């Protein structure tokens, strides 16, 4: 196969990962994923993916293996420009026909928690709620777009959005009524701390087509209560767990676990505690791990106990293995890369409760 390899090169997006003594390959452009047989381990150990044209270590491999590597995008023709593919995907996402209207709506910036790492902690948690004027403006905007879309997706955010449940009811029902007249689908999710997510409220959310909830739990009870406590200082762990166990089974619950250097060692204990109360038996509840970071600062993390992005990437695969070994399916189990392109004014609307129609590119930008 040596002659054929002269026309090929390594993808610049290849990664080698060793887990439990086995070698795996991953391509961050195609999502190609491969487990290396021990018979060929030495060949791949010697491969230097940074030297794109150095293919000699693969010369002795069978044609079937080479074909599999090509299929996964690990090796590509020399004249293939991967960066042009990424640009094409970006522009297709940015300017292509997108028939979904995606909005993030904030019914209130108020919150009943006082998490020390929250981006909102210096903004004094304003208690104002979304006004009738703002709600009317949102509906008017949707009316102007509805003939060009087939799906409206709303993320309810905050603050703690369930403190603005009345406003959510009004807006969600208006959107459903408007969409029904045009044969447009409405769906949504809510990012909540889970403290107010009772069985009755979860039933109501599902009825309003809000069928996904993200709830953050930062570890076992003692650890969680250090970082996610009420404004009076009381812990919140037990009530959140109780709410999740009673939540409507048609509500998909994603448990976000914020990982810092201080709590990462407690992950096995935390996963065991979830298993002990039966969370692993609930098919609608799946955990995942997330980096604590602040996008407004240069370092990308808030203080010394936070991981940098490269540090966290080293830990994340180990954390996923803990979940899998304990019988949990991680929420973000798809390893396929996600390459997005956003043109904010065209596709993505971010509206705060009392500033009528202000656009933001990211929730960290909310003021």
Automatic annotation (TrEMBL):
<dbReference type="InterPro" id="IPR058240">
    <property type="entry name" value="rSAM_sf"/>
</dbReference>
<keyword id="KW-0411">Iron-sulfur</keyword>
<dbReference type="GO" id="GO:0051539">
    <property type="term" value="F:4 iron, 4 sulfur cluster binding"/>
</dbReference>
<protein>
    <submittedName>
        <fullName>Anaerobic sulfatase-maturating enzyme homolog YdeM</fullName>
    </submittedName>
</protein>
<keyword id="KW-0949">S-adenosyl-L-methionine</keyword>
<dbReference type="GO" id="GO:0046872">
    <property type="term" value="F:metal ion binding"/>
</dbReference>
<feature type="domain" description="Radical SAM core">
    <location>
        <begin position="95"/>
        <end position="331"/>
    </location>
</feature>
<dbReference type="InterPro" id="IPR013785">
    <property type="entry name" value="Aldolase_TIM"/>
</dbReference>
<dbReference type="Pfam" id="PF04055">
    <property type="entry name" value="Radical_SAM"/>
</dbReference>
<dbReference type="InterPro" id="IPR007197">
    <property type="entry name" value="rSAM"/>
</dbReference>
<keyword id="KW-0004">4Fe-4S</keyword>
<keyword id="KW-0408">Iron</keyword>
<dbReference type="GO" id="GO:0003824">
    <property type="term" value="F:catalytic activity"/>
</dbReference>
<keyword id="KW-0479">Metal-binding</keyword>
